[in-house]
Structures are given as structure tokens and as C-alpha cells.
Amino acid sequence: MNDELEYRRKRLRFRAWHRGTKEADLLLGPFADAHLDGLDADGLSCFEALLARSDPEIMDWMTGAAEPPDDPVVARLVASVSRAG
């Protein structure tokens, strides 16, 4: 099971750093580096669902232009952006 989780983390880290826009890369990549190792299988699934969303949609959540979904990983991402800002 640990090998499977480690594979998922590596794949998700790559996807977070290689989005479609540089802004999303710089937002999601460092977040993945800081938080993926602490996520369990459910948390990784939430992060996978986040990465399935479009870059403009994610950026709208981060800028406050749209209400983010009720998701613990998205809440951590929004909080990390708020602290950094």
C-alpha cells in the first residue's frame, strides 16, 4: 500500500508542477511539495479531484472571484495562499 501511495504522490507532484499556466504551476507546485507527504489515501484523492479542475476555476477560488468547494484540501490551499499574500 505504501508503494502505491508513494507512486500517487509522485504523479500528483508532477501534475501540480506541470499545469497549463505558469500561475497555476507556482500555486499548486509548492503546495504539493509542502503537503502531499502528509496526505493519506483520502487526502490524495481530494488533491486528484482538485487537479482535475481547470486552472481558471482554481485561480478564481484563490482570488476570491468564486466560492471554493467545501473540501479540506482546497481549504488548506486557500489558507496557504491567504497566509502568503
Report what the structure shows.
This protein has helices spanning about 1-15, 20-35, 40-50, 55-65, 70-85. It has about 80 residues and is mostly helical. The chain has one domain: Orthogonal Bundle (DNA polymerase, domain 1), CATH 1.10.150.250. The longest helix has 16 residues, at about 1-15. The protein is globular. The mean pLDDT is about 90.
Show the helix and strand layout:
Layout: H1 2-17, H2 22-35, H3 41-51, H4 55-63, H5 72-84
Helix pairs in contact: 1-2, 1-3
Shape-level CATH architecture: Orthogonal Bundle
CATH topology: DNA polymerase, domain 1
Q: How big is the Rg?
A: 12 Å
Helical run tally = 5
Low-confidence stretches: none
The CATH class name reads Mainly Alpha
Strand content: under 5%
| Main structural class | mainly alpha
Task: Give the end-to-end Cα distance, rounded to a whole number of Å.
Answer: 37 Å
Q: Summarize the main sheet.
A: none
Indicate how many domains the architecture comprises. Answer: 1
Count of extended strands: 0
From N to C, what is the helix and strand string? Answer: HHHHH
CATH superfamily: Flavinator of succinate dehydrogenase
Mean pLDDT: 92
